[in-house]
Amino acid sequence: MDKNKKSNKNKGLLISSIILMSIVIILAGIAIFYITKDEEKDEKTLAYTELIKEISYGNIEKIEMTVGSTNVKVKVKDVEEEKKSIVPNTEAFIELVQQKVADGNDIELIQKPKSVLMQLPATFLGLLPTFIMLGLFVMIFKMQGLGEKGKVYEDTERKTKIRFKDVAGLDEEKEELIEIVDFLKRPEKFTKMGAKIPKGVLLYGKPGTGKTLIAKAIAGEADVPFISMSGSEFIEMFAGLGASRVRKLFDKARKLSPCIVFIDEIDAIGARRTSNSGAETENNQTLNQLLVEMDGFSSEETIIVLAATNRPEMLDKALLRPGRFDRQITIPNPDLKGRLDILKIHSEDKRLAEDVNLESIAEDTAGFTGAELANILNEAAIIATINKHEDIENIDIEEAVKKVTVGLEKHSRVYSEKDKKLTAYHEAGHAVVSRYLETQTDVKEVSIIPRGVAGGYTMYKSDEDKYYISKTEMQEKLIALLGGRAAEKLVLDDISTGASNDIEVATKIAREMVTKYGMSDNLGPIDFQGKEQNDMFVFGENIGDKIGAEVKSLIDKAYNDAQKLLIEHRDKLDVIAQTLLEKEKINEHEFKKIFE
Ligand code: ADP
Ligand code: MG
Ligand code: ZN
After folding, report:
1. Whose CA is nearest to atom 7 of ligand 1?
2. How do residues 474-533 score in pLDDT, each as one tens digit?
3. DSSP per residue over 343-362, as a string?
4. Closest CA to 424 of 522, 510, 496, 525
5. Taking each helix axis from N to C terminus, what angle separates 500-515 and 543-568, rounded to the nearest 10 degrees?
6. Which residues contact 571 (CB under 8 A, 6 or more apart)?
7. Closest CA relative to residue 102, chosen from 511, 375, 461
């Protein structure tokens, strides 16, 4: 390209832009100086541990973060001025806050886009206009097409210290991935042999199962750079930038090869290409670029692309073709041994008291992900601190498990006597009904102390990981879920909104029994949720009505069964409700005793 010619043509435009920009810059510079100076004056800092404590007390109203920065601003309840804090691991912190919000805490989390200016120390502020000026020059040159194309993106590109030993459980998955480590270390060995190494590996699994962790561990084991980006970053990007970022990412990978490229949340860019509406077209460009890049490098280049998603069904089929992500590995939730190993790893740096039994905690946490288990131990450490315990005791961990599952106890919530009675009978209803159902696990604790959004709760002992659930078990689950509502109706002859979550869960189970697991006798073993078919077309116009009727009859039957059980065991229902009104909580042993 003839650069001189082009720059002459644009000179006029360039100069006038610069004059205009200079004015803007000076004004902006002054404004920024004052804004930041002001903030400096009246902000106090809050230590990270304090911040965590305040969050767990429910004292934080608002958290303001800037992408890429570890500085946060927080608004503490009843404190006028906002405080500053530094968060060592922002990703984990955001997860923690989101967990709190999910638990019903009222925290407003604001994530602002990156603003380099705000992070600069005050001494640099004087030089600010110069920086901006330089920046604008570069920008203008780029707009004229004279500079380098595209925008420089940030990514995490460093060698990680994470090794396979840091990833607990997942033995088979690690075994499968060790081949990739080998390849990254000694590519010649493979190419000489003519062996075909996968270019792309897709990791499927729920959030928090360790996909990112294992991807980093591969890079760590092979001692190669780990270059990552997240698909969700593209969603709010300007038109055309997505594709150019993908191109940049792979340019960098080529320079750093051998290396790992990790694309998190790939479903955000790799969603099935469907219509041609604006956002979709943009995503298509990004996706197309990704496909081009993946097809473009040869296996000699020693780049392995790892991608993660928890929504495999969303992905465009083109991504899964040979030479792209032709290997897929499912990352499951940890089983009993996996959970124990994860708990061990994450308690290594914590002081556990003698009475802590990690085995029994692993048993109690079937279905939990690695991230949730790590979170439980962190919460336990916080709870132990608050309780002024020397080490983390078993009760701290048990409390943490409850906090993570049902939310934090709210002793302060004021309760009318009528509400209290209603809650007591509601929870007693669940507990009594499940006691008489063969397939339901034992009751671990019943409580009418509000926790999170729940007014009370009935906790069951956890089930060891099962592969299959029988129809009887699902039917009985429905009965147990509706036991709360049935008790309200039976005793108080009135019903409340307290059962809304039970009803939601029950309806979902009943619908799945009919449409997914083929458990309805009338409709038979048919998948009515099939993505490819249009139900109305395949099964006739009335199919929706028929499904609805089946779901309703499952629920009706379960509700009737619950009522029958409660009428039959009314004495137990009364005893338990009464005990709850007196003591607020009944544990496993006390519960069993009542039935002896
Ligand atoms: P994902 O990418 O699947 O959402 P991550 O890899 O980000 O999950 O996991 C989040 C955190 O949970 C990890 O940083 C780690 O602390 C913990 N974790 C998850 N799985 C495991 C595991 N198998 N072994 C040890 N820690 C784990
Ligand atoms: Mg992840
Ligand atoms: Zn309930």
Report:
1. 212
2. 999 999 999 999 999 999 988 888 888 899 999 999 999 999 999 998 999 988 876 555
3. HHHHHTTS-B-TT--HHHHH
4. 496
5. 130
6. none
7. 375
- C-alpha distances in angstroms, 66 versus 46, 112, 282, 356, 412? 17, 5, 25, 39, 33
Query: Six-digit token pair at 119?
Result: 């992070």
pLDDT of residue 379: 92
pLDDT in the model for residue 122: 58
Rounded to a whole number of angstroms, the CA Rg of the chain reads 29
Of 443, 368, 352, the C-alpha closest to 404 is 368
**Annotated catalytic residue: which of 427, 445, 488, 550?**
427
- Decide whether any atom of ligand 1 lies within 6 Å of the 558 Cβ: no
Question: Residue 152: its pLDDT value, please?
Answer: 33
Query: Does residue 21's CB lie within 6 angstroms of at least one atom of ligand 1?
Result: no
Q: Which of 246, 337, 258 is nearest to 295 (CA)?
A: 246
Q: What is the DSSP string of 430-494?
A: HHHHHHT-TTSPPEEEEE-S-BTTBS-EEEEPPPP--S---HHHHHHHHHHHHHHHHHHHHHHS-
> In the chain, which residues have pLDDT < 70?
1-16, 29-43, 114-126, 128-129, 137-158, 234-239, 272-283, 299-300, 408-414, 464-465, 530-537
pTM for this prediction: 0.64
- As given in the structure block, the two tokens for residue 294 are 């993946």
| Predicted pLDDT of residue 409 | 67
E strand spans, 310-429: 327-330
Our mutation pick for probing the ligand 1 site, out of 209, 226, 266, 329, counting the most ligand atoms within 8 A of Cβ, is 209
The protein residue with its alpha carbon nearest to ligand 1, atom 12, reads 371
Q: Is 221 a catalytic residue?
A: no
- Specify the pLDDT at position 340: 95
pLDDT value at residue 43: 52
Tell me, using a 6 A CB cutoff, whether residue 212 lines ligand 1. Answer: yes
Q: Measuring CA to CA, which residue among 141, 103, 191 is closest to residue 379?
A: 103
Q: CA-CA distances (angstroms) from residue 144 to 13, 25, 236, 514?
A: 10, 20, 24, 61
> DSSP of 62-85, one letter per residue?
EEEEETT--EEEEEETT-SS-EEE
With 0-12 / 13-18 / 19 or more C-beta atoms within 10 angstroms meaning exposed / middle / buried, residue 87 is buried
